[in-house]
Specification:
Layout (H helix, E strand, L loop, with lengths): L7 E6 L5 H13 L3 E6 L1 H11 L3 H5 L4 E4 L16 E7 L1 H9 L5 H11 L3 E6 L6 H12 L3 E2 L13 H16 L14
Parallel strand pairs: 1-2, 1-4, 2-3, 4-5, 5-6
Helix pairs in contact: 1-7, 4-5, 4-6
Length: 192
């Protein structure tokens, strides 16, 4: 069943540092009554424990639906299942490379493949430093075919005071791209 605002999003969390961005995005989307379908990679489950001391179940309760990353029969693996956008946050370089090469070896990459082939928004939030030429080539290729790349790089013009302020900036940029209004940070208004 679709939520009141009639938006359905797939949110995937992969095995890169920065799972806090995925958690916060899910919290905000739940507050906004957005229907979210969640997929968490096996490596991301380990990082959830390491970085946030939480378990998969803590995030599953923030989503309308959850599918195991190995469940290739899940509805989101088919183009006939409608969703408005997919966000992979954080997006590991392995996942990004698999998407760029069309290697749909798990549900996350298959759903991303569906988003691309069906012309739906696909947003990748890589959290990696430094970036190798391979990473940059893969990102350039994906950007050229319409994938939106939002590096997990917060700005500082809104004068953040806490880590949450920094995280909210990146989550706010994701919301900007999918067209959801928010007050997570104050937009840049020019002139110093």
């Amino acid at each position: 069943m679709r939520c009141l605002n009639n938006m359905r999003l797939v949110v995937a969390i992969t095995g890169a540092s920065g799972v806090i961005y995925g958690k916060r995005l899910l919290e905000v989307l739940k507050e906004k009554n957005v229907e979210t379908i969640l997929v968490i990679s096996k490596q991301a489950e380990k990082i959830l424990k390491m970085e946030l001391d939480i378990k998969r179940e803590d995030l599953v309760k923030l989503a309308a639906k959850y599918y195991d990353s190995e469940d290739m029969g899940a509805p989101i693996s088919s183009g006939s299942f409608k969703f408005d956008a997919m966000i992979i946050v954080p997006c590991s370089m392995k996942t990004l490379a698999s998407i760029a090469c069309g290697i749909a070896s798990n549900l996350i990459v298959r759903a991303a493949d569906v988003a691309i082939k069906e012309g739906r928004k696909l947003i990748l939030v890589p959290r990696e430093a430094p970036l190798s030429p391979i990473h940059l080539r893969n990102m350039l290729f994906l950007s050229e075919i319409g994938v939106i790349i939002i590096p997990a790089s917060p700005a500082f013009y809104h004068k953040p005071k806490t880590v949450k302020d920094l995280v909210d900036f990146v989550v706010g940029r994701i919301l900007d791209v999918i067209g959801l209004k928010h007050e997570l940070y104050k937009p840049y208004e020019g002139n110093f």
